[in-house]
Amino acid sequence: MNGKELTIDEIHECTLVILRKIIDICEKVNIDYYMAYGSLLGAVRHNGFIPWDDDMDLWMMRKDFERFASYCKSHEKELLPFKLLSLDTDERYPYPIPRFTDTSYELKTKTFTYDQFGVYVDLYPLDGGGKEGEIEQIRKKYVFLSRCVFHSIRPDDFPYPEGVKKMVGNVVDYILGRNVIRRKVLMGLLGLKDRFPLEKSEYLSCITWEMFPPYKKEWFSSYVLQEFEGLKVKIPCGYEEILKAKYGDYMRLPPENMRHPTHAYSIYKK
Asked: What's the confidence (pLDDT) of residue 168?
């Protein structure tokens, strides 16, 4: 590590390199991807990154992601320093969603250490979300499991009051922080992806990370090309409806005091 923390602009530059590699792989195996969440918002509202955003998100249909993952596995050495991280590639991996990372960088957080993280792009596989209202059938289980996951990787976000509750909370954090327990919880969350067959579903959802709001499947029936930092990237054909469902009046900028990165980490060159 050279000791110099990357600036937000440097993170953006490195992320674009990763995005180009992902697009290259998608073109080789003939699959689609879509800009997602804040990256979709940035593409539409800013023609690039939201200036204060510190990561990138992409959606893929589950079957397309599996083909992407298969390519990464069979070309692992030649892809270096890029690497796909997931529950299938490493038993220590702490998230229910995959991450495509540049391992020539090191990411540090206050809450946990995982030596494979660098600059990255999060990949969100989309699964069937059932018909109107059906996804509510698994809301309670999803909320419980996802809270356990976040507890295990970001315990500082769940402070306890002093006294007995704090002592009990510390025990909970310790148990959930154990790799073997965390993995069981993660696999339980991953198991929800098969609840609603895609072909019978009217909605799509990233069930393993952000189940709500579900999106109409027709909004992903095709893509349009959108400017993003000089690149042409794919966004869902129903991007307006998606952004309204997620952000409301999405073209309105947030107050200045909310224009800051949302992740508590630092990134360094190794």
From this structure: 44
Fold topology of 8-130+200-269? Beta Polymerase; domain 2 (3.30.460)
- H runs (alpha helix) in 122-163: 139-153
Residue 225 pLDDT greater than 60, yes or no: yes
Which residue reads 């992601």 in tokens? 65
- The pTM for the full model equals 0.89
83-115 residue pLDDT tens: 999 999 988 888 899 999 999 999 988 766 677
Measured CA to CA, the distance from residue 214 to residue 22 in angstroms comes to 25
Peptide bond into 213 cis (omega under 30): yes
Cα-atom radius of gyration of the chain, to the nearest Å? 19
- Contact criterion met (CB below 8 Å) for 251 and 45: yes
Cβ within 8 Å of residue 111, ≥6 positions away = 153, 154, 155, 156, 264
Q: What are the backbone dihedrals phi and psi of residue 259, each rounded to the nearest 5 degrees, phi first?
A: -90, 80
Q: How far apart are CA 117 and CA 104, in angstroms?
A: 9
